[in-house]
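Obj: model holo form, ligand = iron/sulfur cluster.
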Amino acid sequence: MSQEIINADVKGAKSNTIKCLNISEKKVGLFVTCLVNTMRPSVGFASLKLLEEAGCTVEVPEQQSCCGQPAFNSGDDEGTRQIAYQTIKQFENFDYVVVPSGSCAAMIKKNFIEVFKDQPEWLARAQHLADITHELLSFLVDVCEFESSGIELEGSYTYHDSCSGYRALHVYEQPRKMLANVKGLEHNPLNGHSECCGFGGTFCVKYSDISNEIVAEKAENILATEADYLLGGDMGCLMNMAGKLNREGHKEIKALHTAEVLAGLAPQILGDENASK
Amino acid sequence: MQANKPENFYQNVKDALAQPDLKMIIRRTTDKAEAKRAEAIANFPGFENARKQGQKVKDHTIKYMDHYLAEFEKNALAQGTIIHWASTAEEASKIVLDICRQHEAKKVTRSKSMLGEEIGLSHALDNSGIERVETDLAEHIIQLAGDPPSHIVWPAMHRSREDVIKLFREYHKDPTYSEEIIDLVRSARRDLRTKFLTADIGISGSNFLLADSGSSCTVTNEGNAELTITPPKVHIVTAGIEKLVPSMAHAVPLLRLLTRSATGGEITQYITFHNGPKRQNDADGPEECHIVLVDNGRTKMLADGMEEMLRCIRCGACMNHCVVYKHIGGHAYGSVYPGPMGSVLTPHLNSLEVANKQTHACTLNGRCEEVCPVNIPLPKLLRSLRAQSWDKKYEPLTNRFVVKAFAALAKRPKLFQLVSSCGVIFMRLCSRQGWIKSMPLAGGWTRNRDLIEPESKTFMQQYKAMKKAKSDGA
Amino acid sequence: MNKQRNEISRERIFDAIRAAAPTVTADVKAIQNEALEILGESEFARPALLAEDAAEALTLRIEAGLVIGTSCEKIASLDQLPDSVNQFLAKYALPAELKVQEIERLKALNWDGITTEVDIKNDNTVGLCWAEYGIAETGTFVVHSGPDMPILLNFLPLYLLAVIPKSKILPYMDDYALIAGEIAQRGETPRNMCLISGVSGTTDIEGVLIQGAHGPEVLHIIIVEDQ
Ligand code: SF4
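Output (holo structure tokens):
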């Protein structure tokens, strides 16, 4: 659906009526994240669209890679530093850095400083980057005071609060608040909404069987909501839960990133998915 | 049941996941604990303040550990307590055994103490031919079953009522033939009562050591600590040096946190401060009182920047709320201390080489830290243990290779983008109807779940194309 | 005991702490002030009482079923105690015998028709004890060991009655800790100070709460107003 989305982004999809602070003079750098880059570019375009609708001037530095979590969580501090150096250089001159993932945002906001304890100069630069970095939904709501309207999606959704976004960055109200403005969309709350889905980055392949038990339980809770859409703010968790649901043969529930819904891209994505079946 | 070894963690996990009813057994306890804790905290608006205060008490004492240890020693000696110091687990249990031998003890009663388990006291006593009587009901059950504990608050949570019926019928002198839980508890009551009253030595742990008075404090629901300590001639306390607090007033906020976090109750029924041997005309009580102060890795934790872990008050909340513990249970960890706190503690009590796998068996989701009553940053500590084991090369070679290769790529964005786009092509080759069911090198993922099919181009490729189209058009 | 080995371990532990925590200060006064400051936060870090008056709060707490296995009543004067005891025994259909703690003010009461001496080592006995303090926050009675307070009196019987003088009921655990501190200052700390808040209970078999695990199954608190 690659090219279509770009076109859709330009004219096809419904747009949010703009109601937000004027922050257009602020330069925003979009940190796409590697999962969005490879697995789900539409989340990146949805983020772009939302940020622009919120009045931001957005730039996507082409020299970006990964936030470094796989190295950091494996205990490879040197590898993390190597990745962090270039991320800091690429992004430190923006006014804001926005990330469509709670866990990657938390990595930059909370963990970069952990690996620069002995390097005062880099520590300061990492701290600065941490200060200007935001998770997408919380940025739109808390910083831009953006209120979406004019987006429609028929059906019900359930929401999984991924761990880093929820616990490290306290993202909870923001996505719900914005989704409440999507016409036709009902919220079926998820039992254990903030319980880990078992993804955990490298954990899910290292301890695949434990991870499987955890996500199996999550899937049960998701199915119990009878929602049409499973929404969340992290591709990793979404891929994990959607992958489990699909493996178990549950095609009735579609996993989407919150940004995709808010940017009005859901109909196209779902249409695309159906087309490929 | 033989105790699992921490170094066999992978196998332990496999065995645990293969037990069909393990999850139900664990949930019976943890779900209730979780719900009751939530209720207790909802009823206590000052909880966050209590948490901050509790953390401060612990941090303050840890910061001035040498001062408070010396003060405790002085005051305990003044109460007539005999103080022993043990650097290691072996030393600690040897000290206890020596005291038992000196008094020619034949029977000792013990009230539940995780430190006692940590220093291997049960085995040491059993091996020396002294009759050991565990008096906490759960410890009594696992003693009869020959099991290691599976939880720090409910060590016998893995045993069903049916198991208990069998065990009690086999071992109790005057067993019950009823299957009602109350009758089972009464059966244990009858059996233990005479043992309480005829033991030569009572051994306990301690939840708090009060520096300003030299007291040790026990906290139980059953009242078995007082029954263990009072009748025998000799009382031995084994306690980790991190149990210190400045005074009783400082223990109070921690008591408020402990019960609520552990069982969801507001206070434990029995909190007793023990101050040395019986006074001259006292109606009852031990004539001799020993306290064994144990290091066993604690000063090493101080030195390694792990001092936050010394705040732990052993409430068990972190394991009750841990998604991993809830699926594999306590035995899989192969340590006296399971769950998140155990994965941080065990490498210090045992060695990181032996117990590093547990530090990786965690999604770093942060739930444990969120519920810990003394705000221990367990995920941060686990992560720093991973960093230590990375530096020491304890990681399996393949993992190291994959992570290193990834880091090497990720620090070169251009190459990273190139490899990402190749990855997309590769993945799409493996995909059928929008999903990847299996793919070379992705077995860890696709063993249990499908992988979504990526779009045909990466974001960056599409973005560049879009920008180019825009500028061409303009 | 191996004195030398003990000394070596002691030194080793202190050395390790000092090596690890170089912030250690020798100024005892400063450490004490820091410790005191932490206690200042208690006011905002404890639960609300169920009533302003401590005795009332304690009663309400027990009546609300928040203290496991515990009931309570108030009597205006100590003379009424034997009556209350009789009613308690009748309620549980128990024989007219119990172990009354051997202190003058209890002994002096009129126990006609009740045996006040039984061997509590037997099971299924009733005990009556005099509490030093009550604590409203937790529904607690406090006993101190001493020549006329055998600690086992509170643990061996299956039924326990505890008498608390109304004037000795404190609002919070912190208040008791203050008193304990004063007792320590006077060098009069008893061997045991027991804070008892309910009956002996266990949830160790399948999570089901059972009362009377080793000690009392039933606890009845009697608050005496004139003491
Ligand atoms: S780490 Fe925290 S939650 Fe876990 S047992 Fe210790 S005090 Fe309780």
